[in-house]
From TrEMBL:
It comes from Eiseniibacteriota bacterium. GO terms for biological process: proteolysis. SMART domains: DUF1751. The chain crosses the membrane at residues 20-37, 44-63, 69-89, 101-123, 129-147, 154-179, 185-202. Its main location: membrane. InterPro entries: Peptidase_S54_rhomboid_dom, Rhomboid-like_sf, Rhomboid_protease_S54. This is Rhomboid family intramembrane serine protease.
């Protein structure tokens, strides 16, 4: 039994979960649009919608904390970010769902932007625009490393390495280059901020608490809606759900089997159906 919902439409794009598909399409469309602009107009767009610390702090351009994620400097920049989002984000979205994944993406991107802005008070560069989805993508990377730390990937498509080592190495590189102010024009603190905020967000057990809330709603709603199409959860069902949630908290998402993930997904869907039936 597979816990992954069918996002289907067929073809390559149809196989990509909807949040990632929409993020990639929006980024590509904006990149192509800005590529058609003349140099002066492009600078104006970047200064208005890229993240310029002096504008954020001095002029209150708070929207830049979101819009900077959708601008990219060149083809390699957008290809790298979208590839990483696609490669490491798909399984997370299929597990978390559309809304939770998007929320996490933007939380990490905004957090990365804030840390990059704060770093300019120490290292300078307050008038330099920051662009790219790398902060949000690093949040996705840290989430994947926490969920599947021992999963093997191919570095440069050749060298097998586990995810925790790979992403830990990327963070160490950003730490060294960021604090030695030798980033080479790369917003290292946006990477670090996205990873840090993502780590803290997940360590607060936000998603785990949501599962527990859904489980609680499932039990309370089930006891009040015996006339509904779905039968209320049995004692065995609740005991199994509690055991899986405890395992998730103690050992992390990577320890769950596909069957356990499927069980969580089905429990959540059942709770949502019952909740809708009350309204």
């Amino acid at each position: 039994m597979n816990y992954r919902p069918n996002y289907g439409g067929g073809g390559f794009l149809g196989d990509i979960p909807p949040a990632i598909r929409q993020l990639v399409l929006i980024n590509v469309i904006i990149f192509l649009f800005t590529a058609l602009l003349d140099a002066a107009t492009e600078r104006t767009v970047v200064n208005l919608f890229g993240l310029v610390p002096a504008h954020l702090v001095g002029k209150g351009f708070v929207w830049q904390l979101v819009t900077y994620m959708f601008l990219h400097g060149d083809v390699f920049h957008i290809l790298f970010n979208m590839f990483m989002l696609w490669m490491f984000g798909q399984e997370l979205e299929r597990w978390w769902g559309f809304r939770d994944f998007l929320k996490y993406f933007f939380v990490c991107g905004i957090g990365g932007g804030i840390l990059q802005v704060l770093s300019t008070f120490i290292f300078g560069g307050a008038n330099s625009p920051i662009i790219g989805a790398s902060g949000a993508v690093f949040g996705i990377l840290i989430a994947y490393a926490m969920a599947f730390p021992n999963r093997q990937v191919l570095l440069w498509f050749v060298i097998p390495i586990n995810v925790r080592t790979l992403i830990g190495g990327l963070i160490v590189i950003d730490l060294v280059l960021g604090f030695t102010n030798s980033g080479g024009g790369v917003a290292r603190f946006a990477h670090l901020g996205g990873a840090l905020v993502g780590y803290l967000y997940l360590k607060q057990d936000v998603l785990l608490r949501k599962w527990r809330q859904i489980a609680s709603q499932s039990r309370s709603t089930g006891s009040r809606s015996r006339s509904q199409k779905d039968e209320p959860p049995s004692a065995d069902h609740n005991a199994k759900l509690d055991a899986i949630l405890d395992k998730l908290k103690q050992e992390g998402a990577g320890a769950l089997t596909p069957e356990e993930r499927a069980f969580l997904h089905e429990s959540a869907e059942r709770a949502r159906r019952r909740q809708k039936g009350q309204h």
